[in-house]
Amino acid sequence: MTYLANIGRYGLMLMEMFKKPTKWGVMKKLILKEIDELIFSSLGIIIFISFFIGGVVTIQTALNLTSPFLPKSLIGFATRQSVILEFAPTFTSIIMVGKVGSYITSSIGSMRVTEQIDALEVMGVNSLNYLIFPKLIAMLFYPFAIAISMYVGIFGGWSAAVFGGYAPTSEFIAGIQEDFVVFHVVYAFIKSLVFAMVIATLPAYHGYYLKGGALEVGKAATTSFIWTSVVLIILNYILTQLLLG
Amino acid sequence: MIEVQGLHKSFEGKAVLKNITTSFERGKTNLIIGQSGSGKTVFLKSLIGLITPEQGKIVYDGVCLLELERDEQRELRKAMGMVFQGSALFDSMTVEENVGFPLEMFTKLSKGEKKDRIDSVLQRVNLIDAHHKYPSEISGGMMKRVAIARAIVLNPKYLFCDEPNSGLDPKTAILIDNLIQEITQEYDITTLINTHDMNSVMEIGEKIVFLKEGELAWEGTKEEIFITDNQAVGDFVYASELFKNVRSVYIEKKNR
């Protein structure tokens, strides 16, 4: 019953968020600030993780290709498929839930416990629109971060293949060009866009409706991480079945 | 003027406000007093629409708050200023940005006009050198003054203050009380203050509403509170020897 109530309240929150928009002059600044905080400040960790994940995928694929009849280009092929289809959009998103989601829950939660959200409401500001809408718009740029993740992941794979002596550049490049399906990239972008909407709004829900004090802010950040990750994993399954199944 | 009729609110079956009917006049500092848990904060939050009561009416100069849609309530709230117990300043903004926030959100004033308005209200609350400081860099008393400046920057018709003196030293508390009273008279606004502070009652209480266990147990002026024979008010207001003595002196003086 509590789950249903929460889902209902989450839906109402999303609807309320689009009502009574904040003045464009103010909103523009908020959106730019959120793009900086949610997207640009995450690029470092995204690039770092993607590079090494790409490398690990390459090494593991190479070590499992024991048959001499299998071409070395398969290493590049497997790396490309794994990075584009799963590691860049899903793995990176789980990391982003931890980084961006926790930031959103704790920043909005702190505003709730210190009555700053009440202060916004008393002034006549739609606090949901003011606080969450800019985050949602900023997260529309998330697929760009995923594109960078894909590129860096494959680059990490190439580095591991060449410098680890698992495959020469020519074979690796041939592998990443083999049977390339453009829709796989589209699928990854659709997935990352849906994940972005969840990462912007679900942690915000946990912060906005928080009750209690500073201790509850920490608890809410943890709960938000768990639930957002669970929702992403379920959505990942549903979207894969719908788009590729 | 704010009129409250038959206000009732409960949480999980427990009544917190019980059929409260009263009114608050314009240009006066109205004090809501009562023990912790008596329903003062719920009452104040109900008046500004942050909590929705189950029954009753809250009428702002002829407009019933509870009959308005959520967006219409937000419009009405633009005429309200609120000073929260913990000041509720936006901690990522400087003093100047905090005070200028309502101007930024709701007016089309030029940069220069906004600056003039911010300077004038900060001067009004005696804060001159704190424009570029963050809330974490200023004292509790200064934070209250910034909160007051932010609350009055749009020339509100109604001012609400939740425990404006809590956590302040006696001297600063009196300064804040006097500031609120001066602003009330100067801007001719309806001011409601939630307080525990008996000094405030004696200093600025033009109308006092006493809540006990969610009920309106007594209402009157600061002069009437000295002579009331209401037991609940007596037990609360004259709990300390000091105030008992103040009361005796007042009555003695009056009888002379």
- The CATH architecture designation of chain B is 3-Layer(aba) Sandwich
State the order of secondary-structure elements of chain A, H for helix, E for strand: HHHHHHHHHHH
CATH topology heading of chain B: Rossmann fold
The profile of the biggest β sheet of chain A is: none
Q: H/E order of the elements of chain B?
A: EEEHEEHEHHHEHEHEEHHH
Strand content of chain A: under 5%
For the record, what CATH class of chain B applies? Alpha Beta
**Shape verdict of chain A:** elongated
Q: Give the full name of the CATH homologous superfamily of chain B.
A: P-loop containing nucleotide triphosphate hydrolases
Low-pLDDT parts of chain A are none
Integer average pLDDT of chain A:
94
Integer count of domains of chain B: 1
What is the rounded Rg of chain B?
19 Å
Helix content of chain B: 40-55%
End-to-end separation of chain B in angstroms reads 37 Å
- Structural class of the helix and strand makeup of chain B? alpha/beta
Strand content of chain B: 15-25%
- DSSP strand count of chain A: 0
